[in-house]
## 1
Amino acid sequence: MNLSKKINAFIKITRPVNVVITFLVVVVAILISQENNIEFYKIIFPSIVVALVAAAGNIINDINDVETDKISHPERVLVLESLSKKEAIYFYNFLNILAIIIASRLSDILLLIVFGSIIILYFYSYSLKKFPLLGNVTVASLTGLTFIYGGFVTGNPIAAIAPAVFAFLINLVREIVKDIQDIEGDSIIGYKTFPIKYGIQKSKFLILVITVSLILYTVYPFITKLYKIEYFLIVMLIVNPVLILSIKLLYDKEKNRFKIISNLLKVDMIFGLLAIYLGK
């Protein structure tokens, strides 16, 4: 394999779109939490740290999911053998070590959050995701924690709680959708995810309940005057309509609807970030 293809494989295994979104989450969390203007490097370096941890988490997840990915995600790097497991493990360790080194230069609390997140992601990839909702809640909680982390950068984590709840709920929905999408591969290797244990219909109902709760919650930051009219307009014109569309697709017969929903929710997260940033 030539060098450019190898480099592309190293980039692809990190799931760069997700990594960029994670980076932006921290940037937005810092900007909305700051009480005084913060130096540029104090925004960039903490954001890079979390992006590195997220990239490493995606790698260790792929390392442990090779067998199920042969069915659910045959396009993944390790399934195609564009990278070896050994290369992926080395890259995983490198990214985590780099994240810890940078975090250690920032603050003790940020280092603690980063180190704890690395440990949790490791156990998630090896065991937690195999159990009903436990893995889903773990990933969603870590996504919400990303906002809190950004709040700690500015010394004002309270300001990050409202968007952290939004991030938790929308990612919890997306994680359950992904479990439905991966049900065939997960069942073969003995995972006991919520869709496998309780069925697709109950999973759809759970997604419906959480999504409706999320839609109702999006009104809270506006009516309590946490965020301004810009937030409300983007939420009402884009974020919530996409959530409603996701519910509609959930009950359609389209074969690839779960993948479509997952991608829609990822895009919706970006618009949610925009609403939060402009509304603050």
## 2
Amino acid sequence: MKIFVTGANGYIGTGVVKALLELKQDVIATDFNVDGICSHAKAIAGNIFEIENPYEYYGMPDVVLHLAWRNGFVHNAESHLGDLANHYTFLSKLAESGIKKIVALGSMHEIGFWEGRIKEDTPCNPLSLYGISKNALRQSLELLCKQKNTQFQWIRGYYIVGNSEKGASIFSKITSAEKEGRKEFPFTTGKNQYDFIDYDEFCSQIANVVVNNSVLGTINCCSGYPESLASRVERFINDNNYNIRLNYGAFPDRPYDSLAVWGDNSKIQQILKENKEAGLC
């Protein structure tokens, strides 16, 4: 397939482009800056919101994988609401032009406060502007794709573990602090339990979702089990042979975070099984 990836030079985008290329897909990748995108993809720099006819401009792709989103780690940035209409308008132009499938990256923050396993149909009550905006885009795209008879997949992401400084996760921040020579890292109590997934596995799961056309709708890309934040971060520090230590209790736990939450990985496991049987991975 010809797959058009937005936000392709971002923390997640660079890894997903590589994963798609490993699946022998034809990738058209775009971002404001394209210097970090794998050279085997066709990279086009620019602002997707300024393109009048993105379907033709980006070479009439079969699928769009929409990863573009700014300030994802600043949960109450006003830009989330301000950008929402632009995201919808851009994707609606592609749907109007006849693109076969729209795939967009969501977040478990759409759910809001929840204890236990998150299923695809778990009720959403987001408690941040980021979660509200992602959930609104998901609902809008569901309606749009139904009206246009366009296939739709919504990838619900969880907590990504990776030692790149490029991201803004706690793992990226710890890596930066370690390289700066800091001895301690301010931390919460670390008692909350989340669904953690390694960066490469997350990118691979996203790529496998995109090339699968039989499992649609909301899909959790996750490990499928919970682990305490303290346990996962301590393991991350040990695995990377870092010298930095956690300063527990320096920050309070966020009031809108669940004590234990993880994703139901049934659909992504079905996708991986189907793709393997079809020789796609």
## 3
Amino acid sequence: MDKFALYVPQLLPFKEHFLPEAHRACMGCGIALGVRQTYKALEEKNEWMEGAHWEVPFKQPLPGSLIKGTKEVGEETRPALLQIEKDGQAHLLICFDNEAVTAKPTPAVFKKAFPAAAVARGFHYVATACPSYPFDLIDKVRRGMESEGNSYIHILSPCPVGWDFESEFTVQIGRFAVESAIFPLYEVVTGSPRLTIDHPKIRPVEQYIHLQNRFNHFKKKEILAIQAEVDSHYTKLQEGKL
């Protein structure tokens, strides 16, 4: 049993705002888990949640100022987006990314394009999150709502069906994604990223890849190349560079 499985549910807000029987997500869906935690984070902000607007742009360009004109982000990966108005002028945009329709599935760190695009377009608060780290995710959603100006949070959402793994491993795979620095957790407040979960010795990328059958075609040479890319990107983040 995961060492966090026993006490995490006891420390999260008790009330449920996203009921399992009210959605059609698959068992072990990372998006459903991420949305559940997001709603818990904003449980005292019901007036904001009532005006939240969902976008699931599978076949049309991504909306809003974040990706407008950003070809490399908008054409291959179209995640589910939740937009929450904060004060009538600014908003919080949350991307629940299950890598559903990526043209060529790869665990490389191309996802850094989304937060980087948000920073480049002047979002006041930008962060990455994963439901496998619920307290980190909840804190970032709250900071995103409290921040002045627009905010953007990119949430990795493991998908048992699309990634081809057993549903009970959703949380573990999310943790491995972070521990291997495939999906590092950080926030950008003043232009420079700050790691919120830092692993001085990261987990080998190979361990993350082998948990998912979608990567069965990867050869050793490809995995080593990915490891080198991940190491380079993580070192930059540790140095405060995006």
